[in-house]
Amino acid sequence: SSKKNAADPIALPPGTSSEDFKEYIKKAVEIVGEENVTVINNKDELTKEHYTDPSKAHDMFHVFDKDYFVASAVIAPRKVSEVQAIMKLCNEYGIPVWPFSVGRNVGYGGSAPRVPGSIGLDMGRNMNKVIEVNESGAYALVEPGVTYADLYAYLVEKKLDQKLWIDTPDLGGGSVLGNAIERGVGYTPYGDHFMMHCGMEVVLPSGELLRTGMGAMPDPTQPHVEGGTLDQQPGNKCWQLFNYGFGPYNDGIFTQSNLGVVTKMGIWLMVNPGGYQPYLITFPKDSDLPKVVDIIRELRLAMVLQNVPSIRHVLLDAAVLGTKASYSSSDKPLTDEEIDAIAKKLNLGRWNFYGALYGPKPIQDVMWQVVKQTFGSIEGAKFFLPEDVPDKNAVLHIRAKTLQGIPTFDELKWVDWLPNGAHLFFSPISKISGEDATLQYSITKKRVIEAGFDFIATFTIGMREMHHIVCLVFNRNDAGQKERVHKLIRQLIDDCAAHGWGEYRTHLALMDQIAETYNFNDNAQMKLNEKIKNALDPNGILAPGKNGVWPATYNKQAWRL
Ligand code: ADP
What is the distance in A from the centroid of ligand 1 to the CA of 265? Predict the structure, then answer.
């Protein structure tokens, strides 16, 4: 029946009757316990709106109606065997289930499911243990609910934080596991999180349990947990040391995908390099960007730049330090003159490069000499160490923590640039080339300003490319702004695709459109993804539509957004 009964959730799972849903919930309660099942009955219950206490049921930064991307119920398993049982139950009822770890995937949809009425599988609430930190192997094995802040606190508590560093994104509240499988980034030399993960444990859509890499090989020399389930048994002693094991490498298909629920993951920790010096270089002119980028390519590939540094547009830093209203009474995009005035006031450049030196002092000295000399060729470049910046709120002091893997929450503030601030991330990949980056910047900036917004962005520099992260800040209580920002991001995707630029990750609402841009040879890659999806998940229960991959049980055209 499609009529909503009083006891029904806001959205029933597609094709599911009230009766079946009730029955399903009853069985789910038998598996995980009453306290771990929450039915989302009412729009008024969707009150959580802030990163610090994130919603587990809807997208807090909604571009559509607040109750569009919404779960019918949130279920929080207590252990792996319960995850397996929930998968089986979902297969039995044909009910879609959307796993998340912490739900802080802000700008990309948070905890919300792509298909309204899916079960939100809250992997983090009860499964949040640091299973192991191995000092000599310099790795951690974590459950989904372990946040960067948790892992850091664990190291501090065990007095290991001076020996082992973690790598954190700009905000420390997300899941270490969740971020790595979304292929997120941080800023130390270990900034590519998927690159630095090692070994996974995964529940397949069928409920079957899998360990990847060396984890596939049992190790009879390890202690056995008497009477324990498979997931409780210790893994192979090289599980967190060698990524690839034997045969096809499977871990990639469990990233940005809907092929498994990841229940454990290994992550390499960086050994304290024996010295650390963060710095800031400011560049005064908009037109400095190509010169800065070309220098970065040279230094990054030569490993003089040892980490994932970033080039931040001044408005990103300005937004960390104040609201738009605190700088200007304008409700239009700020002009070049206004932006220059802000930069001057904050003693920043139009572009600001945050980097760090890693290693003992003599190594730092040599590196610093090269860095200063090379960037110093750009007219007006200024160099700052933290002690040169008295304002303790300045972004350099935040980055000084982030670039050594100490989680912070200070960068939350930029989302308040506008009242009721929310954001979408637009994240195309760029070559580390002055010409390419400048073209991508000018094309995106032009559209952002045409749409009536300020251009706020950063380039994070990977091994061979840059993630250009454009922060589209909007007022989530302003229907006009929501419509404009939504139109804008669709336009940006098309504009960038016309130049061969694709996004590395995206919000739920844009997954179909972006997936369609990766269409070499008549969508050969999507056809492969769909084949794998249908083989592993014939009932199409796990995260249908995730990153544009729809199971055969869904009419892809009808669901397309
Ligand atoms: P964060 O770690 O930033 O809080 P989320 O927990 O919101 O991120 O997860 C982001 C996305 O990653 C989810 O929407 C889901 O698609 C995927 N994901 C997260 N955790 C898991 C998991 N344990 N198994 C499978 N997919 C997951």
Answer: 13
